[in-house]
Recover the amino acids of this structure.
């Protein structure tokens, strides 16, 4: 019998990190709410993100607004727009923090989603481990963008900040430079970890829902080995009930991830556009650290758009595959009542399952391709304007 932690194995460490960075609610003991520790746990997110995250992002936008030309603005706009998407993600998870916590708790503890057969357990562990290690690598690459940029400027002759923002004092001297550099590094570290962990959380919800649809497919396919019709009907009704619950989970998941995916896709075309423009003005010989950081940044941004589109697409694909799995059951040898039940189920399956971003468009691979095309169009337009 599998433990509850195994169901969300790939997110255990990520959720603890999110608690430390004020993005996931702390659990309060009975009567702790009105104690100093309870007050600190409840307001920790504000104490951390107001002086660092939101102030740092505001200073980035201020630097962009007071820039004297397009080239100078482009040096900061690519990161400022990225941070605007982060603001939407943070406000969204704070708004839906209770719903997100309840959804994660249900995915972990609800007996309805218990894995029964050894085949199901092996499948679940394999997919969870792949997701975990893939996103660990994604997180390390994303942090590499920050620290390669922070390291590269240390080898320059002039005083340069790794990521431009408005500094309200003269920092181009040996004494004050490290204050500006330290706040830049702290702000970028916090915003980067917040960004990638929130991406991981949203993708995990989509990933887990897609696994449940695949689990339904495995159980439908297993019905072909049942000879007892009474047992066949009982198992089939259990699958119908589970499917209804997975549909409800899909709607809950969409409510939580929809705002962040919508903002990410809308802003991503501009982010990639300004990143490419910035990359053109960073010479690999003059500033190799910044050039490598920009290449990494563009790669991470493309991956950041691709991942929710991929996992959203997985839900649609595996939900639609259930119709084919019904045909793998031994329905020809069933009595008319069971056949009618299967026919009703197939009628129910005709309604497509999609994750929609703000009720504007379905999240899937087609929207990823369209976003990349838009980014290229904006980039070409920006190059023409700057000439």
């Amino acid at each position: 019998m599998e433990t509850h932690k195994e169901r969300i194995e790939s997110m255990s460490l990520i959720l603890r990190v999110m608690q430390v960075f004020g993005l996931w609610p702390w659990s309060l003991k009975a009567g702790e709410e009105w104690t100093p520790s309870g007050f600190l746990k409840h307001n920790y997110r504000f104490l951390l993100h107001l002086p660092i995250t939101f102030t740092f992002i505001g200073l980035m936008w201020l630097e962009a607004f007071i820039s004297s030309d397009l080239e100078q603005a482009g040096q900061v706009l690519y990161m400022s727009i990225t941070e605007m998407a982060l603001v939407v993600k943070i406000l969204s998870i704070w708004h839906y923090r209770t719903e997100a916590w309840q959804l994660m708790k249900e995915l972990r503890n609800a007996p309805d989603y218990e894995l029964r057969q050894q085949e199901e357990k092996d499948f679940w562990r394999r997919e969870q481990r792949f997701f975990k290690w893939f996103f660990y690598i994604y997180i390390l690459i994303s942090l590499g963008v920050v620290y390669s940029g922070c390291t590269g400027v240390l080898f320059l002759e002039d005083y340069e900040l790794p990521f431009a923002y408005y500094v309200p004092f003269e920092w181009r001297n040996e004494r004050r430079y490290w204050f500006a550099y330290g706040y830049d590094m702290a702000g970028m570290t916090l915003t980067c970890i917040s960004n990638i962990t929130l991406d991981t959380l949203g993708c995990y919800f989509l990933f887990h829902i897609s696994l449940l649809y695949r689990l339904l497919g495995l159980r439908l396919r297993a019905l072909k080995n049942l000879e007892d019709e009474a047992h066949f009907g009982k198992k089939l009704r259990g699958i119908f009930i589970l499917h209804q619950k997975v549909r409800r989970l899909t709607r809950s998941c969409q409510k939580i991830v929809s705002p962040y995916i919508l903002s990410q896709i809308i802003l991503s075309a501009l982010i990639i556009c300004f990143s490419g423009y910035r990359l053109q003005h960073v010479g690999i010989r003059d500033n190799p650290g910044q050039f490598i950081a920009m290449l990494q940044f563009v790669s991470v941004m493309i991956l950041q758009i691709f991942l929710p589109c991929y996992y959203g697409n997985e839900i649609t694909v595996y939900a639609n595959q259930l119709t084919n799995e019904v045909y793998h059951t031994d329905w020809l040898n069933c009595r008319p009542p069971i056949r009618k039940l299967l026919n009703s189920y197939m009628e129910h399956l005709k309604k497509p399952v999609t994750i929609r971003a703000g009720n504007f468009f379905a999240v899937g691979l087609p929207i990823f391709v369209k976003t990349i095309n838009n980014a290229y169009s904006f980039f070409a337009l920006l190059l023409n304007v700057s000439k």
